[in-house]
């Protein structure tokens, strides 16, 4: 698959052979999260004490421009694993998207995500799982079955969360949410309203919790102060699937 780059107004964009944007980086702030939906992929921070984040394990399925992995590695100080099927994407991220070299806290696995997440070394070992798996047409998730989401759930620690990038204005959205709810339980699923571009991030907890609104707001304050993410705005468009 061809990998291309473009730049506009200080932002570098990643494309996989089409005009569709598969990721971005603000050139003067390469470790910040530029796209709104990518920021929302960090909503698991609402459910995890801020002081416990550093040293935890983040896994990204579908490297894209590497934004999530870079943020977790540089800003959150987490151990990070990214799984990407296309070695060219990883090469471009290192050369043009400021993806740091691998070390004891950062590993890029070249392989098929569906197969890799069945490796026993990852079972119960992931605190924050980000799923963003689209083909070059970006039409629908590449992996979206109940079997796949069951494999994802098995990766998570007891207080771990999965966030998934879905397209909220397509027919596949309800099917995807139903698959996630079937595996995790409806009480474990939260969803954002779609962004202007149509991306709808869905979050699923390994162990469902129902924090009070005041607790979520307090945690959002901490997230904004520590990491500069618009977490208070999230709460206006982020709801539990089951009331």
From TrEMBL:
Superkingdom of the organism of origin: Bacteria
Protein name: Spermidine synthase
Active site: 132 (proton acceptor)
InterPro entries: PABS, SAM-dependent_MTases_sf
Originating species: Ottowia flava
Keyword Transferase in annotation: yes
Keyword field contains Transferase: yes
Similarity comment text for this entry: Belongs to the spermidine/spermine synthase family.
Keywords on record: Polyamine biosynthesis, Transferase
Annotated PABS domain residues: 1-219
Gene3D superfamilies (UniProt xref): Vaccinia Virus protein VP39
Transmembrane segments: none
One Pfam assignment: Spermine_synth
Coiled-coil residues: none
């Amino acid at each position: 698959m061809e990998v291309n780059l473009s730049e506009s107004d200080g932002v570098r964009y990643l494309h996989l052979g089409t005009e569709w944007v598969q990721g971005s980086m603000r050139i003067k702030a390469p470790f910040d999260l530029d796209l709104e939906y990518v920021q929302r992929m960090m909503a698991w921070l609402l459910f995890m004490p801020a002081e416990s984040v550093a040293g935890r394990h983040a896994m990204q399925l579908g490297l894209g421009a590497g934004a999530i992995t870079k943020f977790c590695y540089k800003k959150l100080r987490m151990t990070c694993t990214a799984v990407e099927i296309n070695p060219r994407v990883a090469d471009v991220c290192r050369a043009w998207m400021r993806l740091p070299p691998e070390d004891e806290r950062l590993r890029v696995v070249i392989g098929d995500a569906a197969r890799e997440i069945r490796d026993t070394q990852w079972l119960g070992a992931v605190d924050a799982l980000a799923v963003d798996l689209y083909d070059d047409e970006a039409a629908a998730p590449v992996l979206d079955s109940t079997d796949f989401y069951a494999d994802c759930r098995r990766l998570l620690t007891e207080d771990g969360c999965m966030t998934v990038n879905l397209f909220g204005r397509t027919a596949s959205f309800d099917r995807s949410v139903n698959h996630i709810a079937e595996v995790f339980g409806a009480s474990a699923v939260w969803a954002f309203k779609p962004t202007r571009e149509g991306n709808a991030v869905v979050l699923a907890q390994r162990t469902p919790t129902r924090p009070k609104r005041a607790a979520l707001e307090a945690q959002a304050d901490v997230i904004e102060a520590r990491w500069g993410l618009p977490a208070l705005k999230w709460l206006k468009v982020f709801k539990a699937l089951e009331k």
